[in-house]
Design goal:
Layout (H helix, E strand, L loop, with lengths): L1 E4 L5 E5 L2 E6 L2 E7 L5 E4 L5 E2 L1 H10 L2 E5 L5 E5 L8 H10 L3 H24 L9 H18 L10 H27 L16 H23 L18 H6 L4 H14 L6 E2 L2 E2 L1 H16 L1 E4 L2 E4 H16 L13
Parallel strand pairs: 1-5, 2-6, 5-7
Antiparallel strand pairs: 2-3, 3-4, 7-8, 9-10, 11-12
């Protein structure tokens, strides 16, 4: 399970084999360490004991710190969860050869196919009751499918040769996808289109916070797989930028976060805002819904797995691909 700490002045400590959460000096929660996967702190003024920190890193329990908008700004992990030198050497070398091109294309392929499947998921029961909406969304789907075929014609010796072409494919498909999401939420909420930093509307705020949750999980999977989260392929290098996290997360955004957010909007879920940010109650609600989605099973590689397990599987498969030991296939969720 994940523990979300949202109240100013909370204290986290250790008592025997349990994490203790105190608020105003009183114990409000006790969680056995063997049930805990992640501690998430998205408020200021929280105190942690060194005993708790040591117990968490020894057990592989990550501790993440977020801004109120959901953006991660720090993470505590064990210094021993660094994988093998061989994996990281291959990761760095792959940037300079065709492996980098191949994996970047596969990330985008997974992203576009998941965009298509999410757009198919929501109107599939509206064909008779709202044919105009159905036709409009399926026209967008057809255009994204056409753009997807362009990936086959992109070739290069290293990622720097083709990044511009790949980003063009991703960008054009993304513009169409968000037009489709706007159609699906029309009449229920005012969605201005996809906005990233600084957005204050409810839908973008939900998306940004949800993506922050997903980034944390993907980064943890990458670290456990022995990869360097800062050494990406599709996303360019920049100091402090977890480029590989942004790469791998592309094939999970739509199925994990977008489906949850659109469902909340379409069901009329109250989205409370405070000073341009999601209220604590809404953040907690969103976290619970995304965690439920991560527990959902999807068919992958011939079997059914929880999505959170698939994320870890994909990080490990990425490592084996970069070492030249296996092929990589992007995760594509059902509709």
């Amino acid at each position: 399970m994940e523990l979300l700490v949202t109240n100013f002045g909370s204290f986290l400590g250790k008592k025997s084999e349990r994490l203790i959460l105190k608020e105003n000096g009183k114990v409000v929660s006790e969680i056995p360490f063997h049930d805990l996967e992640h501690v998430i702190i998205d408020t200021s003024g929280v105190s942690l004991s060194t005993d708790l920190i040591r117990e968490c890193v020894e057990r592989g329990i990550q501790i993440s710190f977020l801004t109120p908008s959901g953006k991660p700004y720090a993470k505590l992990v064990s210094p021993y969860l660094t994988g093998t030198v061989v994996t990281r050497r291959h990761q760095l070398m792959a940037y300079q050869d065709e492996r980098g091109v191949t994996i970047a294309k596969l990330f985008i392929e997974g992203k576009l196919k998941n965009q298509i499947n999410v757009l198919k998921y929501f109107p599939k029961y509206r064909r008779e009751v709202d044919r105009d909406l159905f036709d409009q969304v399926y026209q967008i789907i057809g255009e994204i499918e056409r753009i997807l075929t362009e990936l086959n014609g992109i070739v290069g010796n290293c990622i720097d040769d083709v990044r511009g072409q790949l980003m063009s494919v991703e960008g054009r498909a993304g513009n169409l996808y968000w037009q489709g999401i706007k159609c699906l939420t029309s009449g229920r909420v005012d969605f201005p289109g996809r906005e990233h930093r600084g957005s204050t509307d409810p839908v973008n705020s939900l998306l940004n916070y949800g993506y922050g949750m997903l980034y944390r999980r993907v980064e943890g999977a990458i670290i456990l797989a022995g990869l360097d989260p800062y050494g990406g392929f599709l996303h360019v290098d920049r100091s402090g930028k977890v480029s590989l996290v942004y790469d791998l997360v592309e094939e999970f955004r739509q199925q994990v976060v977008d489906r949850v957010v659109v469902a909340m909007v379409n069901r009329g879920t109250e989205i409370q805002m405070e000073e341009g940010m999601l209220a604590v109650s809404t953040r907690q609600d969103l976290q619970e819904r995304i965690n439920q989605r991560l527990e959902t099973q999807e068919k992958f590689q011939g079997k059914r797995y929880k999505i959170k397990t698939i994320i870890q599987m994909q990080a490990r498969r990425l490592a084996t691909f970069l070492r030249g030991e296996a092929k990589y296939r992007p995760f594509v969720g059902s509709w």
